[in-house]
Amino acid sequence: MTTTRVGRLRDGDIDGNPRISVVIPTCGRPALLRRCLDALLDQSGIGRDDYEIVVVDDRGDSATRRLVDGFAVRPGAPRMRCLAPFGAHGPAAARNAGWRAARGAIIAFTDDDTEPAPDWLQRGEGALRGGDFVAVAGRIEVPRMSHDRCEPSDHELMTRGLEQAEFVTANAFVRRDALEHIGGFDTRFTRAWREDTDLQYRLERQVGPIGRTGALVRHPVRPERWGVSLRQQRHAYFEALLKREHPQRYRRRADTATPWHYYTIVGATLAGVVFAARGRPLAAGAAGTLALSMIGRFTQRRLRGTRRDPAHVTEMVVTSAVIPFLSVYWRLRGAIHFRTWLI
User: Fold this and answer.
1) Domain 20-224: CATH architecture, name and number where available
2) Cα(315)–Cα(310) distance, rounded to whole angstroms?
3) Residues 71, 80: Cα–Cα separation, whole Å
4) Using alpha carbons only, what angle is made at residue 111 by residues 106 and 112, rounded to the nearest 5 degrees?
């Protein structure tokens, strides 16, 4: 596909519009959103008329709207609005609703659970205006929770992975005309997974290069309910969609190793059930032993370098026995639905 480059970004605003529009999707999390908005009202090096904040509430929560309205009337606050998406839902649809309603030539994306640094907007805008980029990705810092204990939780380790991410909409600045050119986010990504990578690949392929900036947001580890790792297995479904849409880039930059140990656990468990049903106890026992052994090794690997308190260990043991089955289910379901080879 031929890349179509957009013109250079104008230095000033038009008709009194702000230069930057901050778009924040949220879903009934006013406590987290409050922390983010506090940080956005504390921006330095940029005037209050130079940026706006667009909050898109995917749940239509009255507490969220009251919170945004309260911030909007604070003395010296930038213009601020709370919207609700129409039709499709999910973070991709919410971000589309936000940037389409925005007035700035630069769209600054972040999430409700982040804390932008005081110079976040200034540095992000400078990087986008100072180079031949259609978007720039900023830095993410995950504050360590485990200062009072030696080791983190499994969930904290997963959250720290954001620090190595190539391009995530928790901290990204994108030209509005580039978003218009590619049609924004793909709303088939209905969860907060890979919708930003898909946007990145389409921008690179159709519009122009993406750069990096030192603009920083902090992403504290969000409290999660028990078994968060089980809910995250659905991400595999959207891996299939990303691979279907960008097969070459996926293989070069995003592909992960096939979890053969998951397939071994699932296969051995099913074989044990079949052998038991056919009255072959020795074969059933051998298959069950293999499955349990693989689950034990998987649990040990997840516990390596993490907390060893009873609650966390119990969660790791239980979820390690379930994760292979959920992961294989969602991988195969995604591969079938999107008609792509993903194992």
Assistant:
1) Alpha-Beta Complex (3.90)
2) 9
3) 8
4) 125
Long-range contacts of 298-301 (CB under 8 A, 24+ apart): 298/261, 298/265, 298/323, 298/324
**Which one has a higher pLDDT value, 78 or 60?**
78
Q: What are phi and psi of 260, to 5 degrees?
A: -60, -30
| Rounded (5°) CA angle 147-165-176 | 125
User: Minimal CA–CA distance to 82: which of 63, 69, 71, 92?
Assistant: 69
Long-range Cβ contacts of 279-287 (<8 Å, 24+ apart): none
One-letter amino acid at 324 equals P
Given a contact cutoff of 8 angstroms between Cβ atoms, the answer to whether 166 and 254 are in contact is no
Closest by CA to 243, choosing from 198, 192, 200, 196, is 198
pLDDT at 224 over 60: yes
| pLDDT tens for each residue of 94-146 | 999 999 999 999 999 999 999 999 999 999 999 999 889 999 999 999 998 75
Question: What's the pTM?
Answer: 0.92
Q: For the chain, give the mean pLDDT.
A: 93
Domain segments of the chain: what residues? Answer: 20-224, 229-343
- Lowest mean pLDDT segment, chosen from 140-149, 185-194, 211-220: 140-149
Residues 280-321 have pLDDT tens digits of 999 999 999 999 999 999 999 999 999 999 999 999 999 999
Distance CA 106, CA 320 (A): 43
Question: How far does CA 166 lie from the centroid of its chain?
Answer: 12
Please list the residues that pair with 83 across neighbouring strands. 56
Confidence class of residue 91 from pLDDT cuts 50, 70 and 90?
very high
